[in-house]
Amino acid sequence: MVPGKRLIPASHGQLEAIYRAPAAPTTRVGLILHPHPLYGGTMHNPVVFHCARALHECGFATLRINFRGVGESSGEHDHGRGEIDDARDALDALLIEQPSATEVVVAGYSFGAAVGLRFGCADDRVHRLVAIGTPIGMSDMSFLGACAKPKLFAHGDRDDVAPLAALERAWQSDIAPPRQLEVIAGAGHFFENAMDELRAAIATFIGS
To answer: Which domain holds residue 93?
Structure first.
């Protein structure tokens, strides 16, 4: 894929995407998934953009996609079910472009975090997961108890959409290690004025 906006094949037609590769050859790739499309979520969301930027600065080739029914992506919103297929189709395309990849990260924000965790925990090609503003308690996340892949949960302590308290309760027994929780002081669900801290948390986890 040439860097920039692309349309990639999907089971329902096509996915609109933005691909970015580092200047030097890389074996690191990252797929980034956006928040809830019924509330305006797209691949252009600022948190998604800064997550992709953090991965790119760590030497990753990155792919952001619009889920089905968003922008120029075909299909219709499927409440997180078909969106897992979208993530799979996107990773297929990314790995065709980067066949030498030895490190695959799936990152998601809010709704995208829920989709990314479910997809990434089940797909053997995925090595690490980044979940930002994860809506624990809003969907069945019981699979996290058996997910032994390294996971970063980045969360604002003032998140009133996906309250931190729900994630902290799940942390006690429902999320399998290895795992890391990065609480960003003063940040709400949209991480206003906290993008630098968010990128730093991602870079630290990816560099570990």
So the answer is: 4-207
Cis omega (within 30 of 0) for bond into 178: yes
Q: What is the pLDDT of residue 208?
A: 59
SS3 109: strand
Which residues on adjacent β-strands are paired with residue 128?
105
State whether the Cα torsion 88-90-96-99 is positive or negative. negative
d(CA 154, CA 162): 12
In the chain, the number of structural domains is: 1
> What is each CA distance from 159 to 13, 110, 132, 155, 192, in whole angstroms?
36, 11, 11, 7, 11
Predicted pLDDT of residue 1: 62
What pLDDT score was predicted for residue 46?
98
Cα separation, 188 vs 66, whole angstroms: 23
Which CATH number characterizes residue 56's domain? 3.40.50.1820
Task: For the chain, give the mean pLDDT.
Answer: 96
Report which residue type is found at 72.
E
Tell me what pLDDT residue 2 has: 62
Strand partners, 151: 129, 179
Which letter, b or e, does each residue of 6-24 get, where b requires 16 or more Cβ atoms within 10 Å of its Cβ? bebebebebbbbbbbbbee
- Residue carrying structure tokens 């919103």: 77
Can you tell me the mean pLDDT for 170-197? 97
